[in-house]
Specification:
The structure is a single chain. It contains 4 helices and 7 strands. By secondary structure, the protein is of the alpha+beta class. Helix 2 crosses helix 4 and helix 3 runs antiparallel to helix 4. The radius of gyration is 15 Å and the shape is globular.
């Protein structure tokens, strides 16, 4: 197996401790709500990926170049400036869902939300499910 060189790997750090330590009270409350939402949608127990990403499930990828590795299937991070939601393999084909989500910005595989009150959490749940379905059509997804 080729080394992926991923900086973000699964750790044994307790998710509960990480969430409880989020400084900003609104960001902490939003993170706890996101944890409940992701658990409900996925049915999986979260694991920490790196020092700041709460991940649900994982998948092993192998690219045509031979690079391979493991990564979280979906998850989030309560960053200082926003909530980052990770939908893999990305958001390119979810424009119809995103138009109903509410206030957000997009990165390649990240959805940035200032606060949960800015979005429709039912639509966010739909987006999480759609992302997992898309990902599992390409790579086998394992529960966490």
């Amino acid at each position: 197996m080729a080394d992926s060189g991923n900086k973000t790997v699964m750790t044994a750090a307790p998710v509960e401790d990480f969430l409880a330590a989020v400084d900003h009270p609104v960001r902490r409350a939003d993170a706890l709500t996101l944890d409940r939402l992701f658990r409900e949608v996925t049915g999986w127990t979260p694991r920490m990926w790196g020092p700041s990403i709460v991940g649900y499930g994982s998948y092993h990828y192998v690219y045509e170049t031979g690079r391979e590795g493991d990564f979280l299937a979906t998850g989030f991070s309560p960053r200082a400036s926003n909530l980052s939601v990770y939908i893999l393999p990305g958001y390119a084909d979810f424009g119809d869902v995103l138009t109903r989500l509410g206030k957000h910005r997009l990165g390649k595989s990240c959805l940035y939300i200032n606060k949960l009150a800015d979005v429709d959490t039912d639509v966010l749940a739909e987006l999480i499910r759609a992302g997992l379905n898309r990902l599992s059509a390409r790579w086998p997804v394992e529960p966490s």
